[in-house]
Amino acid sequence: MGLLAAIWVTRSGGGEYQATAATAAIILFYLLAEVSGLYRSWRGISTEHEVICAALTWGLSLPPLLTIGFVTNFHHHFSRPLVLAWFVAAPLLVVVARLLIRGIQCRLRARGRNTRRYAMVGVNDLSLHLARHIENSTEMGLKLVGFFDDRPRGRIPPIPVDLGLRIGDLADLVAQTRRGEIDIIYITFPMRAEGRIKGILTKLGDTTASVHIVPDFFVFELLHSRWTSIGGIPVVSVFESPFYGIDGLLKRGLDLTLAALLLAVLALPMAAIALGVKLSSPGPVFFRQRRYGLAGREILIWKFRTMWVCDDGAAVRQAQRNDSRVTLFGSFLRSTSLDELPQLFNVVSGNMSLVGPRPHASVHNEDYRKLIQGYMLRHKVKPGITGLAQVHGCRGETDTLDKMEQRIQCDHQYIREWSLWLDVKILLKTALVVVSRQNAY
């Protein structure tokens, strides 16, 4: 379809060469789709991940396709406009097709069609949380049959009326599954209940249901956990960075592209600000301060100087409202956040990101890591010019421990829930925050 669209746009003639090229592209695309998992079930996986997977699969198809074309001298049969239009139209159509299919599936599943029936084994906080999430995600197309547990009713927590009922014990579960009344089973017993889990798995081995064990890792404070395998042994991370592999490349690509574009657009305004800083008060144009970056390594962050002093020693006092250290021109820069613009150079150099936890002075890091559990986990990712905490109102002076704890909670949430779309939303919200000048002083 992409090639046909390109032929129509460029008014190029069709023929056997185009048909051969299309066939080769289809074969390559489907082979790589098997590797990328594009045609697996996407139930419960975000639309964004599916779209990225579809686009990347086409992107991975291009190098071998171009190589084959040059080696066989086949590329001479295609004009450059046609090739360019094809390479642009194909991923767009693939993405649109995936979105249409997902939209149709969501509508069907919301009406009770194309659904699968699932059951929860064990009544506990984990099963209630999981069932609530599934019931709120109608696009997954899963319908709850009920909860199953062997324990007496007095030993299990109450189930919310709108969520479902405990409809039997494990023997009832096996019986209903054998009759084909249950398609998917989630076992939410605690990890210590190894014997109970093995017992129910043995009985369910005589059925055709899909069985999932849901480990109760939620008792730990997970930070972007992921499953890996070492020698066939499954391993789950508890504290991990989300920026490995393709995700890291995507984030770095967004940082470089936007930072370079902003520097090109803002070059003259930044030059004017630098002149204003120099003329308004004695001292350097830029303020540099040691702060913690990725993995807790110290970096130097750049800002336009806004104060009469440049604190970067054993004692650094946070800026306060009506701070006497702030110059008149510096007050304007801080209220408009223009003093942060030089950090675009930090982004380009690679020690900061556009979006991430805001870096704190090194001396403050050493203080707060002793007071707040998990404080240093915010350094699993690069610090950012803006972040989730800043757009959620946790901006400005942290004159109480509670304020800093709220900021750290937002930082942890950002790492757990990171996606490229989340970065885009934070950047857009940042523009609104800057305009409102909330807690900027």
Describe the fold and architecture.
The chain is an alpha/beta fold. The chain has three domains: 2-110, no CATH class; 116-219, Rossmann fold (3-Layer(aba) Sandwich), CATH 3.40.50.720; 246-436, no CATH class. It has helices spanning 2-10, 16-36, 47-71, 80-110, 125-136, 170-178, 194-204, 246-280, 328-336, 343-349, 362-368, 388-391, 401-417, 420-436; strands at 116-121, 142-148, 166-168, 184-187, 210-213, 227-230, 233-236, 286-292, 298-304, 353-355, 384-386. The radius of gyration is 28 Å and the shape is flat.
In N-to-C order, the SSE pattern is HHHHEHEEHEHEEEHEEHHEHEHHH
Strand content: 5-15%
Mean pLDDT: 82
**Number of DSSP strand runs:** 11
Please provide a brief summary of the model.
With 441 residues, the protein is α/β, with parallel strands linked by helices.
List its traits.
alpha/beta, 14 helices, 3 domains, 11 strands, two-stranded antiparallel sheet
Helix and strand arrangement:
Elements lengths: L1 H9 L5 H21 L10 H25 L8 H31 L5 E6 L3 H12 L5 E7 L17 E3 L1 H9 L5 E4 L6 H11 L5 E4 L13 E4 L2 E4 L9 H35 L5 E7 L5 E7 L23 H9 L6 H7 L3 E3 L6 H7 L15 E3 L1 H4 L9 H17 L2 H17 L5
Parallel strand pairs: 1-2, 1-4, 2-3, 4-5, 10-11
Antiparallel strand pairs: 6-7, 8-9
